[in-house]
Amino acid sequence: MDQFISCHGRAGHALMLDCRSLEFELLPIPSDVRLMVCNTMVKHEHASGEYNTRRRECEEGVRALAEVLAGIRALRDVTLDELEKHRERLNPVIYKRVRHVVSENERVKKAARLLKAGDVTAFGQLMADSHRSLRNDYEVSIAELDLMVELASGQTGVYGARMTGGGFGGSTINLVDADHTEEVRQKLEQDYEGKTGIKPVILVCEASDGAGAVAES
Known about the structure:
This protein is α+β, with helices and mostly antiparallel strands. It has seven helices and six strands, in the order αβββαααααββαβ. The strands form two sheets. The chain has a four-stranded antiparallel sheet. A two-stranded antiparallel sheet has the order 1-2. Helix 2 packs across helix 4 (92-117) and helix 4 runs antiparallel to helix 5. The two termini are 32 Å apart. The model has no long low-confidence stretch (mean pLDDT 94).
């Protein structure tokens, strides 16, 4: 995904990628919002092992559901209704992992529709839903990420906040009104450091064009 967006990104747009077919769609980001990346400066040592565990848990969910849902190859092929109908086939932990993936796929599709409509308020609500799912069902968040999301969510001008990346540390991504970016940045930096003793790194970003070949002179 990182390499794909690095090549195919376009200024002022998000990119929705189908990782199976590699089809993608560019989605407009309103010009009056900014992306704010907040690095918690925390990274857990055991993260790589946890990533492998999540993968195995999801694969176990696919195998169990494939016994009753013909033709599924991955969790993307499962609907929320199908998951609920057959949830008794999954132990509680596997069910939560599967519910995160299936519901997150639905959120991505809905988020695309909202960006096309320019509804950043509803889009921000989906970001909050996504973080709760990552925290409660997929269990890849940590206290510092949760705190950064909580602090951002209470700020004027912040439409939405959630962790980004693989989890177990790292950064949050926030959708912020352009007119409030500096005050939000300063307040988050101050409040996060005050509660953790850690000085975060906060960057205000805009979506830009992907990499291109440089012509030789």
